Amino acid sequence: MLRLKTLTKTYKTGDTALKAVDLEVPSGQVLALIGPSGAGKSTLIRCINRLVEPTEGEVWLDETELTGLGAGALRRARREMGMIFQEYALVERLTVMENVLSGRLGYVGFWRSFLRRYPQKDVDEAFRLLDRVGLLHMADKRADELSGGQRQRVGICRALIQDPKLLLVDEPTASLDPKTSRQIMRLITELCRERGLAAIINIHDVALAQRFVPRVVGLRFGEIVFDGPPDGLTPDKLTEIYGEEDWEATIEKVDEDEAESEGEAAE
After folding, report:
1. Whether residue 141 is found in the same domain as residue 216
2. 229 has a pLDDT exceeding 80
3. Does 121 lie in the same domain as 43?
4. Can you give the residue range of the structural domain that contains 203?
5. pLDDT given at position 107
6. Which residues form the ABC transporter domain (predicted)?
7. Is-contact 87 41, C-beta < 8 A?
8. Cα separation of 233 and 222, whole Å?
9. What is the tens place of the pLDDT at every residue in 66-124?
């Protein structure tokens, strides 16, 4: 279980990105984090693994308080938190397989990784993951030869090969077309179910969040203003999170997508 207790982040400029956020994410639960730009979504995710240092509060992963760890203990704790980035964060000159295996850096040590001498069990797992996401045939391709959707699938494999307890996913569909966005969200949620993984997905597309994720948390000005199931995102609640807009159109889009999905399944 992940627990955030009065998590606060104030930058040196005086801007407060998070204001005493309390949040629990049970093991195996997938949660979508929504809100306008500047609401604190990315900051929250990065405070969990301390890519951004919280100003106050606590972050607990099971029985470990992450905010109290020194550098060595934090490196070990980060093995249990896989990160999937908006811009993929792949090494362009390396192959797909090498990028996936880089997810094992926290386990194999510097010299073995530098010489690319990974244990055979890690190599076998990398092949299994690539097969699962449909990229087995591209294992030897360089990362700079891939499309955006393919790069994101490599990023997913790299995170999963860590064998994490928690996935932190930062806008995984922001650079993708609508069809690929749906495929990536479906893949992430399916893999979390298969592996019993908890996940926090920072996503700007409300319709995707409503379609694929069972729990949605809405942030505004660094505070949680909604925490509930997707069907609780009424036009009034979306207005509270984002401001005035024709939210009925967004809700209709979700209904249309669900109907289309049911039609695809029937075929």
Report:
1. no
2. yes
3. no
4. 2-80+165-266
5. 77
6. 2-246
7. no
8. 19
9. 998 999 899 899 999 999 988 878 989 999 999 999 898 877 766 566 667 788 999 99
Answer yes or no: do 154 and 44 share one domain.
Answer: no
Amino acid at 7: L
CATH code for the domain of 260? 3.40.50.300
Q: Determine, yes or no, domain membership for 85.
A: no
Domains in the chain, number:
2
What is the CB neighbour count within 10 angstroms for residue 38? 14
In a domain, 121, yes or no: yes
In contact, 106 and 75? CB cutoff 8 Å: yes
Q: Which amino acid is at 153?
A: R
Tell me if 30 sits within 8 A of 192, measured CB to CB: yes
The predicted structure's pLDDT at residue 148: 92
- For residues 59 and 47, is the Cβ–Cβ distance under 8 A? yes
263: pLDDT strictly greater than 80: no
Q: What's the CA gap between 76 and 225, in Å, rounded?
A: 33
Which helix (H) or strand (E) element contains residue 216?
strand 215-220
Prediction pTM value: 0.87
